[in-house]
Structures are given as C-alpha cells and as structure tokens.
Amino acid sequence: MARHIVQIREVPSLKLGKSDMVFDITYAKKRVGSLCVSRGHLVWRPANYRKGYWLNWQKFGDVCKKYGKKQKIYF
Question: Three-state SS for 60?
Fold first, then answer.
C-alpha cells in the first residue's frame, strides 16, 4: 500500500487572508512536490521545479469531477 506523508509548513489562522497554507508531499521518503492553498486558488509545484501549476477553485472542482473517483467521505 502506498504511503504518503503530508507536512504542513506554515499554519495561518483558519481564515486564509493573504497567507497561504503550504503542504509538502512526500512519497517513499522522497519529496514529490508542494501544494500551496490560498483563498482564491491553489498551486501544485513538483519537486525541483521553479514554476507551478495554478488552478482557481472553479477549475479545481471541474478537474476533480472529471478525473476523480466519487466515494463516501468521513469528515
């Protein structure tokens, strides 16, 4: 079974203002990339890349609906 490690680098208050939340994603003890979550968008930056892939929340929802697996959630 695959094991992913998610670490939160910066934790602002619950409401995101001008601060972003940054998640470092690690797989098999190697850094896969970082996910930056902000109030208006999110950015995926693969490890060792200078530029990231930017999506606003509407486009993120569209991507999830198109490529994601629909299942029951527990939160």
Answer: helix
In a domain? residue 17: yes
Beta-carbon-side half-sphere exposure of residue 19 (alpha carbons within 13 Å): 10
The 3 state secondary structure assigned to the chain is: CCCEEEEEEECCCCCCCCCCEEEEEEECCEEEEEEEECCCEEEEEECCCCCCEEEEHHHHHHHHHHHCCCCCCCC
- Show the domain range for 29: 4-67
Whether 73 is in a domain gets the answer: no
Residues 54/63, Cβ–Cβ less than 8 Å = no
Each residue of 24-68: pLDDT tens digit? 888 888 999 999 988 889 999 999 999 999 999 999 999 999 999
